[in-house]
Task: inverse folding
C-alpha cells in the first residue's frame, strides 16, 4: 500500500504497477506452473543447443528458505558444466543446510548473520574477493515476500527469465564476452519512475557519494535484486567497506533500510565505472 500511495493513483507508473501485478498473478502464474514449464521445456528441446561462450560463470544465492534450494539447482542445471555455486545461509540454519546441501557438487556454503536480507551477505561475499575470478555471476535468492500478493510467482518468474532455459541462459552469459557489460537483468523488473525511490533517495545519494559515484546517480534498478553481473562492475560497492553491523537488525522492514538503499545502488556502481546495464535482449538500459 505504501508503494501504491507513492506511485499516485493517476500516474503512468501506477498503471504499469497494477498491470504487472495482474499479469504476474494470471499470465505469470500460468507461465511458471507445471504445465507451463513442461510446455517451455518441450519447445526448448526443438532447438539445438547454443555454443558455450568463453566466459567464467558462477552463481551466488542467499538461501534463507532451505526448502526452495531445488529451484536454485534447477537454474544451475541450465548452464553448461557444474557451475560453482556460492550459497549464503543464516548461521542458525547452517547445520540444517549442511545436512541437506552438503553433498551438492561445486557448492560452497557461507554462514552469515541474519540481517540485511540477501543484500548484506552478498556484499560480504563481494568484499571477500571470492567472486573476482568470474566474468558473469548470477545473483539469486529464495525470495518469498509474504507481504506481496505475487511474491511466490515473482520469484519463480525471475528464476525462469534469468536462467530458466538453456539457450536463453547461454545467450545472456555470452553478453559478458563484451567487456563493457556490467549488469544484465529482466526489464520487467527494472524501475525508473521517481516514486520507486520510496524512502531511500537521500540515503542512495549519500552512499553514491561515498562510492565516488555522485555524478552517476539516477533511478534505474532491478527490483527484487536478482540479476547477472560482472564482479568488477561492482568494485565501487567494495569501496564502501561495509560490515554486517552497518545493516539494520531484521525486523520485517519493507523499506528504508541499508539493504533497500543498496538495491538501488548496484547499477549506479556499474555506471560510475563505465559499465553498461542491459536487459535480457542485450539492449542498453537508461
Result:
Amino acid at each position: 500500500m505504501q508503494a501504491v500511495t507513492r506511485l499516485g493513483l493517476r500516474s503512468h507508473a501506477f498503471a504499469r504497477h497494477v498491470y504487472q501485478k495482474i499479469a504476474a498473478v494470471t499470465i505469470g502464474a500460468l507461465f511458471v506452473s507445471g504445465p507451463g514449464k513442461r510446455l517451455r521445456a518441450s519447445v526448448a528441446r526443438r532447438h539445438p543447443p547454443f555454443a558455450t561462450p568463453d566466459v567464467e560463470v558462477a552463481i551466488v544465492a542467499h538461501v534463507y528458505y532451505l526448502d526452495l534450494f531445488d529451484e536454485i539447482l534447477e537454474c544451475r542445471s541450465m548452464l553448461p558444466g557444474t557451475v560453482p555455486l556460492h550459497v549464503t545461509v543464516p548461521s542458525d540454519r547452517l547445520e540444517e543446510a549442511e545436512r541437506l546441501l552438503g553433498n551438492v557438487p561445486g557448492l560452497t556454503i557461507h554462514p552469515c548473520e541474519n540481517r540485511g536480507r540477501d543484500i548484506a551477505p552478498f556484499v560480504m561475499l563481494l568484499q571477500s574477493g571470492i567472486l573476482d575470478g568470474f566474468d558473469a555471476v548470477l545473483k539469486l535468492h529464495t525470495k518469498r515476500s509474504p507481504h506481496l500478493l505475487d511474491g511466490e510467482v515473482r520469484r519463480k518468474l525471475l528464476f525462469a527469465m534469468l536462467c530458466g532455459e538453456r539457450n536463453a541462459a547461454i545467450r545472456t552469459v555470452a553478453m559478458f564476452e563484451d567487456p563493457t557489460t556490467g549488469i544484465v537483468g529482466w526489464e520487467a523488473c527494472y524501475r525508473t519512475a521517481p516514486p520507486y525511490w520510496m524512502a531511500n533517495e537521500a540515503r542512495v545519494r549519500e552512499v553514491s557519494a561515498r562510492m565516488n559515484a555522485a555524478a552517476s546517480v539516477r533511478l534505474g534498478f532491478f527490483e527484487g535484486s536478482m540479476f547477472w553481473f560482472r564482479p568488477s562492475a561492482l568494485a565501487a560497492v567494495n569501496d564502501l567497506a561495509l560490515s554486517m553491523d552497518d545493516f539494520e537488525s531484521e525486523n520485517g522492514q519493507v523499506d528504508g533500510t541499508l539493504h533497500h538503499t543498496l538495491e538501488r545502488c548496484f547499477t549506479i556502481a556499474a555506471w560510475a565505472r563505465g559499465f553498461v546495464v542491459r536487459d535480457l535482449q542485450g539492449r542498453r538500459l537508461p
